[in-house]
Amino acid sequence: MEATDLTTRALPWGAVWGQDAAVQTLREAASDPAAMTHAWLITGPPGSGRSTLAYAFAAALIAEPDDDQAMRQVLAGTHPDLTALRTEGVIISIKDARALVERSYFAPAVGRYRVIVMEDADRMAERTSNVLLKALEEPPERTVWVLCAPSDADLLPTIRSRVRTLRLREPDVADVARLITERTGVDAATAEQSARHAQRHIGMAQRLATDADARARRDETLRAALRVRGVGDVVEVAGRIVQAATEDAKALTAERDEAERASLLRTVGVAEGAAVPPAVRSQLHALEDDQKRRATRSLRDGLDRVLTDLQSLFRDVVMLQFGRDGELINHELEAQLRELADAWDAERALVVLDRVAETRRNLEQNVAPALALESLLVTVASGRTP
Q: Region 124-132: what's the mean pLDDT?
């Protein structure tokens, strides 16, 4: 897939990749009031660039076409006419939603529009969604809402009826692999494997391509699941999977947590290694609370990534059972997958796939991770749902 002039490196669309049709729609909306809608929903699978596109659109709406400085401010999240909610907790709180609604009624300070970007809008409970309804239905003339979610089905019908939905396309494995090679310089084979294992999720593919430990944890997790032969293996393997997801989450958050702590202390004038004055401790505690919430979300996301990988594993088993061996995600494990495909009938493989999907939903409902995984692995071992 070749890039077109729709996504040139010129601001603000330069970071948007592989979504030419969506860019065309939003460019027209930003430049033509007749094509404009004041509430948008950008949907697409994780890693498809929903947030990147949302901020590019915000920059095009807020800044004049030749004002590169204002566009850079929006893309950096520092422009006064941009209000963004980046969710790092498990859910979006009613308090946060109300704050967005309040900001939406402010007139633009310096730009053409005030833009409200809500990432992960699918993390709203019904009560929280209801807070947004009137603001989405009757926004002020120069306010634009941009929600992002994996699918419009993840939001209430009352929300969907008040927004214009823009669906992003999924890139091909080869396209993602080329992008990863361009961005990171890794060899073509590593980029292709990472894009395939990440199931075309650009961010995850980049991480796998550049982090050997992440690749090793994924490989060990899948091999452990393939070794489950009886109920006696279940507790051990479930524990391993939770441990791998925990280590992955810590690796993602530890460096960022330390950088945030150091930045806060520098900002308030505390030298490195010096004692923290009592007046600063409340700010430090607030930061640590935010980081703990983020760690909880990161672990939940890590477990979901593991389950996505397991889903790809048992999907490959089904593909082999139906003679589709050219479309495997995990073809490095083809010998073990063929063994399983021969040992199971198609019904059992489909039962396991359904159980993986159910486990993902259960974890979103705060089911204990170890218990959820043990229950899943009992189905893997027996072919029956506990």
A: 89
